[in-house]
Amino acid sequence: MKTTAYDLRRRATSRAVEIFCAASVVLALVPLGLILFFVVRQGLPALRPAFFTQMPKPVGEPGGGMANAMVGTLILLGLAAALAVPVGIVSGVFLSEYKGSRIGSAVRFAADVLNGVPSIVIGIFAYTVAVLPFQRFTALAGGLALGVMMLPLIVRTTEELLRLVPESFREGALALGATRSRAVWTVILPAALPGILTGVLVALARVAGETAPLLFTSLNNRFWSTRLDQPIASLTVQVYTYANSPYDDWHRQAWAGATVLIASVLTFSLLARFVTRRLERMHRGTV
Amino acid sequence: MSKHDDKLFRLVTAIVAASVLLVVVGIAATLIQGSWLSLRQFGFSFWRTRTWDPVAGQFGALPFIWGTLYSSLLALLLSTPVALGIAVFLAELSPRLLRQPLIFLTELLAAIPSIVYGLWGIFVLVPVVRSLEAATPEWLRRVPLFSGPPLGVGMLAAALILAVMITPFSAAVAREILRAVPTSQREAAYALGATRWEAIRLALYYGRTGIIGAVMLGLGRALGETIAVTMVIGNNPQVSASLFAPQYTMAAVIANEFTEAADDLYLHALVEIGLVLFLITIVVNALSRLLLWRVADKPVAVAPSAAAPVAAAA
Amino acid sequence: MSRDVETPADPGIRIRTEVRASEAPRAAASTAITLQGVNFSYGPNQVLHDVSLDVDEKRVTAFIGPSGCGKSTLLRCLNRMNDLIESARLAGSVRVKGQDIYAPGTDVIAVRRRIGMVFQKSNPFPKSIFDNVVYGLRISGVHDRPTLEAAVEKSLTLAALWDEVKDRLHQSALSLSGGQQQRLCIARAIAVEPEILLMDEPCSALDPIATLKIEELIYSLKERYTIVIVTHNLQQAARVSDKTAFFWLGRLVEYGPTVDLFTNPKEKLTEDYITGRFG
């Protein structure tokens, strides 16, 4: 059997598809490169020490910074973690310990649904639960919104990681007469803890970039505030406000804010990747 | 005694876990309760009325529903071939040394905050789109798809941004699906004299259910995306087929008008839009989950982000 | 796992083995495949060392040996399936009817069409029985319906599956039993009319009855095809093959007529293996 013209055409088609696939990857990397390029080009010059230490200046006065917004974002993330981490981890423990239970499947499904709920809708939820009753926008409401967004990520990560803990760990603990809860708290959870913490970092990095759910929960604040029962500034909302303004100086500030956001996300991602690699190696070592 | 302990342990963890369920139910309940006035006043006409006039107290969601569906479907159209191309390249073609770095880079795209996409959209993408629109020849402008003045902001810019944003999600899930296709399938094809593409096509066919699920997952993302779209779509409530026309989406109108809603009916109408959005995304996401669950016994990565393989890889 | 817990061959095998291969006297065979000095490695691991042998045309040749001895790898060298592995390297020559299939510029697709393969685990496509059988024809450009239908009937008949499935050709191949699926895969492989059929432990996942059917099939197929079969099962090799090659740690230890190899092995290693002293 010889190579026919038809075979040549098939091979050309195959080649064409392979090239298309490689081109797709390049095509996806183009916007990534462009975004990083512009953020750095526009943002870096505006990124002076003052940006980290000073408060926003009123329109017309150049300079100023986003110190309050950065602190605000950290406070919001702290609140979100305080809410989502304990609930998420315990739920994850339940899901992995009682795999087959009917509540388990329902919770798993709910976590997936929650993960898909648009962030703006979660904003409405947090508004209704935490703003409306007190007639006031608060940091707490913003933290609640971000916490709800983190929750499904932590639940699922915890569950997946706990499942990877070798059965022998549990058997070892149970053989020594430990109760199930003791086995979980003292043996199984600690074994998976580094991975879970990485998962928490990843979830934090993800919600740190959220704007929509904060627009009508924590709102924004031009002044220095660390009070939880008051509106609070955040990096994302501040960038959003500045970007939509007509002032060039504010646009520069917005780019600087974006640079800080991107840099944090990159750091988190690289860190998490590094930790993941380490964990992978450890797992390969022990299992 | 230890039996008693275990029961208590199960009970306590179950109650905490049930709170996840409770949040979802709570979201649905607040949306219904918060849109009650609007639900009662407009009924089903809310879905098909084009007028959005807060001053006159006239609220119809059609332009927003249209804008959301149109922008998302356009984005899907643009992103699906590219996302599948990426998935195929990373699962089947990439040299081993390049695979991990490329996965990391493509997933980094998913980690960029949507506000940064929006910022880049306004100041970089929109001017480019505007000059593209201005350069559109006159005869082409007569086609409804390209009618209207070259504003830059509008459906085209929104669809482009959305396409970039959802691509890494679909690509990551489709890649996982492809990797789950048994090697024996490809081997069978190769042994019969298949070309690489023919073997890959077979693998895509084998994983077709999951691939559709991956695409729908991207759709779910696009439907709910708020900030980036709000910044580039032009925020004009109209039902138009034109790619150049400024339009509006459900998420965008909530983001823009929620704090301004002065009277109860206005606020309730906005919450009802939230309810509609919630229902649409739930249906899309649930469908995608079911498709993905049918393929893999274990759920595929919930969300890719630059570091998501934490769970998958460990 | 199950392939590692193979039962040691019955020491009495030499006496009890019924060697059907020589029942009908046939004309002396010509050579279908010639291997010369084949060395093969995955990255730094050399898997095959200097293997040379001739495979007779229209005969069944069995490759036997313990797990990891390289017999499956060698089989995959014969239709260049190892090309799919990035780090694989082959030195030496593999000639099929005189043509070096590793020569530069060789059309791998044409090679694989000439040399069909059946795998350890049946791997039907999730398509209808009909679409499975005609897959190879369709990708090589045959779309004429009567031709395809004729090919399906012929291949399924040869694979001894036609009577069982002729009324449900358009049902999913996955609705078939394990043994039927494997026969379907054989039908799929022979539908493109290859000259050579490679079988990589085709029965290892099947029950004894299904195994017996496949063995009958192999026996009947050698009228038309040159067959190379890798097997773990010594009785199977003895039952179906004309010639047997025994491999040990990547080297060809002994190769000769099956009858001789099982009844009168020349090498101590071969004897130890077929009498079940190791494995």
Please provide a written account of the structure.
The complex is a heterotrimer of chains A (287), B (314) and C (279). Chain A has helices spanning 5-43, 49-53, 67-97, 102-116, 119-131, 139-164, 167-175, 180-208, 235-243, 248-286. Chain A has 287 residues and is mainly alpha-helical. Chain A has two domains: 5-46; 51-286, MetI-like fold (Orthogonal Bundle), CATH 1.10.3720. Chain B has a two-stranded antiparallel ribbon. With 279 residues, chain C is of the alpha/beta class. In chain C, the strands form two sheets. A six-stranded mixed β-sheet of chain C has the order 6-7-8-3-9-10, sandwiched between helices. The longest helix of chain C has 14 residues, at 145-158. The interface between A and B is large, with 110 and 97 residues.
CATH classification class of chain C: Alpha Beta
Strand order of the largest sheet of chain B: 1-2
Low-confidence stretches of chain B: 297-314
CATH architectural group of chain B: Orthogonal Bundle
| Number of helical regions of chain B | 15
Average predicted local confidence, pLDDT of chain C: 88
Q: Strand-residue fraction of chain C?
A: 15-25%
Radius of gyration of chain C: 19 Å
Chains forming the largest contact: A-B, 110 and 97 residues
